[in-house]
């Protein structure tokens, strides 16, 4: 079954609101095996709205709209849905009663506008609104066949725009209705990798990408990392899951050394959970990342069980004061060096009394590089107590990239990678 | 001039990525007086991509695409753009050279895929990519007139999908090109505020919002802050600038106490520059924010001149070790209290020997609240040397919001606000 998602509202076209409804609906439709083919956004204009609904139904079975169901003049989704699907609005007394009670509970007087909300297409399926006053609905039509195609049924489902009302209505009323309509079951998984570029990743995975129809395998890049998406659509959830798991095993064979999650989890979450499950405590010493490592780790609620402190020692003085880095080391090798990174990691681990000490020092850029030490040069230090290997090691990264943000983000991911691969 | 924005990428249809590119492009196009009529998203499928470009150009003058310019098999925007606009791909040697140098600076070997990126439409205007390897381009065609309409020129502009590459390319290369295409001169400014909600802000600004046609004034909310956008389109840049500045002065009269920038700058940047220009040094002590304050401040290149260290003391032990917070204070008042915040700020300032010490301690959530101390409770401490007021003060924030991310982000902004308003 093929679907289009249509957002109605001029404020979206102005860029005033990020369209989170579409993200939500896309995920939920894919979850139940409905292929989302298009997203559309159109303003509050009757002609364009009607035209785009027709465009959507050219090759989709269903179009789901959000927005334009409110009580004001520029809300016209109901009228246009009727026009396209061949129906007309009638007063639904049960809905009127529902809205009247809702207004009473709000202690608000019912206006002419509220009454208008009980006008719905005559042959629609109504979706009640538990979080607001505008009801949603679904409406179908029989589309005449032509030379190439047989007669077929098509649907429009109209939901309110406010995300809270839309999501609640979707879960309680639209989901059960859609499950009646569809066949087949889709399962998908996201594999996350670090340390390999997208072209490289695709080249290594070509044997399972080329000519593959189910499960499908696709790579994509996001924020300096690359992911692989594996999706399968079968008659039952069990079959689809089995196909996806089989493919993940194959992919593991090709690029396993770069994978850190086969469940789409982010690196801080993976490492945080590893530390929590093994009861290993951690402290950090940051320089060029300025606190980003600690910030990423403490995104995880409950991480205080294993995370003790991160000392952001931006100046040389702070590195000596806080971490006991030797003045001779800074003088002889510089703040951005293997020796300094190692002393930082050891220093913070000793001071905090944790199992693991992780450190980072580098030249984030865009300036500050030299002939010997380029912008993008980063050292990651790792110091482990006897409980987890008893080693102190360093990784050098030399990307020669002048982009401060990307260098910093890459350094943070490298710190998580360093822990994940070595502890 | 009418525009459509077309996002290309199956991952968007899967709902895996929130479409921020479209929000960004919508705002910027509206800023320069281009009417955005439609947003479209389509997957990596040649037939559907071609069809939707034609649909876009049915009643728009220009369609701007993002995505599908990468080096892998499912990237096909260039090919389809050629097909629709009537052109073909040729090797652009200058681009090939540019990509080769880029790969050298990354220390990466150039692959067949990278070479493919230098293939571009023969008569296109190239947009260089300063942040990645895939170049963008613009291409036009002359559309034959029919009974109702005269012959007219139409454009497609194809930009890369990664937001960082796209935005940079847009600002540096696409904007100047669009300004050549459109007539009149648009100037806009973004006023940034903190500490006031959007409806409040709008209410206070009603006198300058209502019935205003030029300059236009619009409020919008983003990441816990509210901005006001002022835009004017006149015959010359001077006229437009004068109109915008006059309006900013009026707005200052209504809500000046909440404004921290009339140039669209972010709070860390504003505070960082204030400190640098006044030569005031700063250290920080963070708890619930986990390093986010330091991370935000060190986004600014050159901030090492005034920023010394941030001690992320997540555990109580770390607060005592690193900042000298008294055990009695923690016992009597708790880690989340005015007393602890003040001792943290004083402690880090004394230890680092800086002019300013700023601290934060709070309950970010989603759990961990009590009857007396709700999730969302945050204390910000500020300690200043005699050079900048010689005071030690605290601000209490009690938002009763269970959202960890929003609480943390708000706490960081409050730290910058505390410094901006009191130093």
Can you give me a brief rundown of this structure?
The structure is a homodimer of 423-residue chains. Chain A has 15 helices and 17 strands. Chain A has 423 residues and is of the alpha/beta class.
Tell me what you see in this structure.
The structure is a homodimer of 423-residue chains. The first copy, chain A, is an alpha/beta fold. Chain A folds into three domains: 2-181, 3-Layer(aba) Sandwich (Molybdenum Cofactor Biosythetic Enzyme, Chain A), CATH 3.40.980.10; 185-261, 2-Layer Sandwich (Alpha-Beta Plaits); 267-422, CinA-like (Maf protein), CATH 3.90.950. The first copy, chain A, has helices at residues 10-13, 20-31, 46-59, 77-85, 93-106, 112-116, 163-181, 198-209, 237-255, 267-278, 292-297, 316-323, 327-333, 338-352, 404-422, and strands at residues 2-8, 35-42, 62-66, 89-91, 119-121, 125-127, 136-143, 152-159, 185-193, 216-222, 225-234, 259-261, 282-286, 307-313, 356-362, 377-384, 392-398. In chain A, the strands form four sheets. Chain A has a six-stranded mixed β-sheet with strand order 2-1-3-8-7-6, sandwiched between helices. A five-stranded mixed β-sheet of chain A has the order 14-13-15-16-17, with helices on both faces. In chain A, strand 6 (125-127) and strand 7 form a beta hairpin. In chain A, helix 8 packs across helix 9 (237-255). The longest helix of chain A is centred in the middle third of the chain and has 19 residues, at 163-181. Chain A is elongated and about 85 Å long. Chains A and B meet through helix 2, strand 2, helix 3, helix 8 and strand 10 of A and helix 1, helix 2, strand 2, helix 3 and helix 11 of B.
